[in-house]
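Late entry, written up from scratch paper. The run itself happened at the end of the previous shift, but nothing got recorded in the book at the time, so transcribing now.
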Amino acid sequence: MKKEEDDFVSGTFTWNIGQFSKLDAVQHYSEVFVVGGFKWQISIFPKGNNTKEYLSMYLHAGDSSTLTSGLSRHVKFSLTVVNQLDRNKSIKTSTYKDFRDVPGGWGFREFMFLSEIRDLSKGYLVNDNVIVEAEVSVRKGDIRFLEKETGDLIDFKGLGRIELAFHPLLEEVCLSHPSLIECQQKRSRKFVECAFTTLGRLLHFLKTEKVRDLNQDGYESLQHLWEELETFKLDLVWLQPHVESVFGTQNMAGRVQRMREDVNIFENEIKNRRAILAAAEVDFERVKGVLMKAEQEFKWGHVDSVIGYPLA
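Output as recorded:
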């Protein structure tokens, strides 16, 4: 559990919603807050989202531009409506979601009954104020990608603005594979920017990372980049075998690791059995010595005599 916590950066945001009973908007938004370098925002439907009985509540990526900078599926979050009379009675729901391409955010349409909030004796609505908390946990690997990819933008062949660090990598592959440019000619500028930014991120990853240094988090980040890149329908026939070979190395490394673990298990088993055998040999020698002494003391001549019986 401690290792899992170490893999994430977490933060909590508290939203005080005043004049709750007077909110007229269908959907009401909090201010933007930041966790792990990414922007977030809470929204509520004070009269329910296609339901009149429940409060609906969601978490959104507060700035869609951060999604193109490496945000992966590894986001844990919880939303809480605080009980202002007894903290232990607060309503909290947690989940684990992928925020890519989810403009509506993730959350809970039936978070809690509105009747519970409106019942002043319950403690969720005090002085017409509702308190909502969001706890967000972002994987450290995603933060590293965000840090690496934040840089100056430069025009790329009139198709869009791309990060400066990716420009020479893209120039190189587009020179060798002109179909990358050709297949994007009829796409929108924003689409092309996203496509080549994602390709640049992948090329940068392959150019700077070493297989020996990749841990599970690194392989998952590569998997995420590749899956995202495939959605843009670029001509990647030239790159696919190489990326698959990296995953093949991961699979082989996994197999080698499992075999190493099996060898260690058998080695320990052999040691244990040798210890048992050594103990058995000691017992054998001890019993053998007792037997030899007993044989020496036993008078075998009595065995051949008639047993007989006493007369008096």
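The two ends are 85 Å apart (CA to CA).
(Scratch paper discarded after transcription.)
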